[in-house]
Recover the amino acids of this structure.
């Protein structure tokens, strides 16, 4: 299986390579792709050195699958070119997510929607993936009416420039700013750009992508996305109102039996999810599950996951694994 990784030298691209190796993805040829300035550089995958190539060269080599994490503009221009050459693109940018002709996939939830005709498949936003992993099994059981979510997002979601800004601030140095303010000892309620409706793009991704993945426009989602000086993963405080009654014990049982979810919920012994423990793992960690006594059929929970893994690279590779089983063995 010939696999291209577009954006191979970036933060998510590097994790994609790590995940492909960890999961022994059966690739016969790796095609690392990056911008012109990186062409010719070597990257090592499973103790073998590969030369980074240009997008144009990669298309010509006709990979079966191309994992993209290279920004929306690159994806809008090049994903169709790969698809035209017969490649299936799994794109981590926001470019195709809300396109009605494209599937937006979290494999545990809706991989079955993928057909042989889908040559561009969208990977959801990191904060959406960990949210819907918790919502979907509960939506099936109790029908969600409304979700109110506040996120506490890792600076790795912004990229290398943000990590460098925090390191500079730790060291008392000045340097290029990824954010409008210092991130050290701070919390910035501004992830991505502000829109006309006074929400940020990140907040509207949570609202719009959740509806699409759950295939239910009636689910109401109100989001506030906040950036905090953390690197291990995104954390989310989530309040859910259901249409049906539930028992907290049943909610915990449903979640604990859901693939890809690890329950960490024993406050009496200080057991709850935190980014320092989620970092480097592929699961979505859920805890602080408790009834919201102020509303009928309402629940609070805390959700943490490594945004570079299940929030991006792992989810994309899991989609590739699904394709492998679905298409390339048929
Ligand atoms: C962020 N979810 O965290 C966005 C992009 N990865 O900034």
């Amino acid at each position: 299986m010939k696999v291209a990784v577009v954006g191979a030298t970036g933060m998510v691209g590097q994790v994609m390579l790590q995940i492909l190796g960890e999961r022994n993805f059966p690739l016969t040829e790796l095609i690392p792709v990056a911008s012109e300035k990186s062409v010719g550089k070597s990257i090592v995958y499973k103790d073998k050195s590969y030369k980074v190539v240009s997008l144009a060269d990669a298309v010509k080599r006709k990979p079966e699958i191309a994992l993209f994490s290279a920004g929306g503009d690159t994806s809008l221009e090049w994903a169709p070119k790969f698809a035209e050459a017969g490649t299936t693109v799994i794109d981590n940018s926001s470019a195709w997510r809300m396109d009605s002709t494209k599937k937006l996939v979290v494999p545990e939830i809706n991989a079955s929607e993928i057909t042989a005709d889908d040559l561009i498949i969208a990977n959801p936003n990191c904060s959406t993936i960990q949210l819907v992993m918790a919502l979907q099994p509960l939506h099936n059981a109790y029908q969600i009416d409304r979700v109110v979510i506040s996120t506490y997002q890792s600076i790795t979601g912004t990229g290398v420039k943000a990590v460098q800004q925090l390191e500079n601030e730790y060291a008392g140095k000045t340097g290029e700013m990824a954010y409008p303010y210092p991130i050290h000892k701070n919390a910035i309620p501004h992830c991505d750009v502000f829109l006309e409706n006074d929400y940020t793009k990140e907040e509207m991704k949570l609202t719009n992508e959740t509806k699409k993945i759950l295939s239910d426009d009636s689910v109401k989602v109100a989001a506030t996305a906040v950036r905090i000086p953390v690197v291990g993963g995104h954390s989310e405080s989530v309040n859910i109102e259901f249409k049906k009654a539930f028992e907290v014990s049943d909610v915990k049982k449903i979640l604990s039996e859901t693939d890809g979810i690890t329950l960490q919920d024993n406050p009496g012994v200080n057991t709850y999810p935190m980014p320092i423990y989620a970092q480097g793992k592929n699961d979505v960690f859920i805890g602080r599950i408790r009834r919201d006594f102020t509303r009928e059929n309402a629940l609070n929970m805390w959700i943490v996951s490594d945004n570079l893994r299940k929030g991006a690279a792992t989810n994309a590779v899991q989609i590739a694994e699904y394709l492998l089983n679905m298409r390339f063995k048929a």
About this structure: The longest strand covers residues 144-153. Residues 147 and 240 are 5 Å apart (CA to CA).
